[in-house]
Amino acid sequence: PEASQEIFKIASMAPGALLLEAQKEYEKESQKADEYLREIKEQKLLPEAVSQCIEAAGYEHEPETQKSLLRAASFGKCFIDKFPPESFVRMCQDLRVLNAIRDYQIGIPLTFTQYKRLTIEVLLDRLVLRRLYPLAIRICEYLRLSEIQGVSRILAHWACYKVQQKDKSDEEVAHAINQKLGDTPGISYSEIAARAYDCGRTELAIKLLEYEPRSGEQVPLLLKMKRSKLALSKAIESGDTDLVYTVVLHLKNELNRGTFFMTLQNQPVALSLYRQFCKHQERETLKDLYNQDDNHQELGNFHVHSSYA
User: The Vps16 C-terminal domain covers which part of the protein (predicted)?
Assistant: First the structure.
């Protein structure tokens, strides 16, 4: 990179090289620091010198060299009025991330250019695929990424990996996932439950759905798992009339008529809503419902209304 070449080539008089020397002499408490600094300021190249040191730090792999260049940039900033700090702060953040993933235990030796082109989202995906969840979460928290963009996505991936492990009981896995995820914004327990169901762990999926606060997310998966009666209970608990109708009509198509009526008998709210539906859509079914209940009063009213019709 041009910035590094300019600073480190032999006998370089580039502003970045002079600033680096000035900072080193300042640490030695030498008056040469003032001479170097004066030379840069006379040429009005101090902002360029700071920028050069910041840029060069990104292309260095050795942390000590990075620190040396950033110290020089920080030293130079003190003598500039209103130097924008964003580039310095961003470089410090990027280098901390790069040094973390370059560690031999992680083994992703990206250059600064590769890191920028890869984007932080793709890097996090790679860490997650390697199951390096703690590092990925620390990076998200350090860079202050949004919950949806960062931590919650990683935790959801961890949970989906967890449900595939067969060495623990459904109860233990569900409890461990809930302990870790809690009420983290952006987490969908129904998606994790769907992954558990796809892995053949239906009971685990049902336990995970207990932690899903949105009934609208619970019910479709319960219907898919053929747990229609539980889906009906959840829909009634939600107080969402449309959701109840959806489950009732699903039950109607899934069960034979006798079983369907018996199921509704145990759910007064669903039965009442289905009666309302029949009054407007299926008058003949209404008659069967009254017969099933031995409700002679309403059955008589039904025949009177039918005769007027």
Answer: 187-308
CA–CA separation, 176 and 4 (whole Å): 49
- Return the pLDDT at 306: 62
Which pLDDT belongs to residue 283?
56
131: its two tokens: 């199951």
Other Cβ atoms closer than 10 A to 186 = 14
Token representation of residue 75: 């030293």
Q: Tokens for 251, please give them.
A: 């039950």
**Whole-angstrom distance, CA of residue 158 vs CA of residue 302:** 58
**Whether 76 contacts 49, CB under 8 Å:** yes
Phi, psi at 187, each rounded to 5°? -85, 130
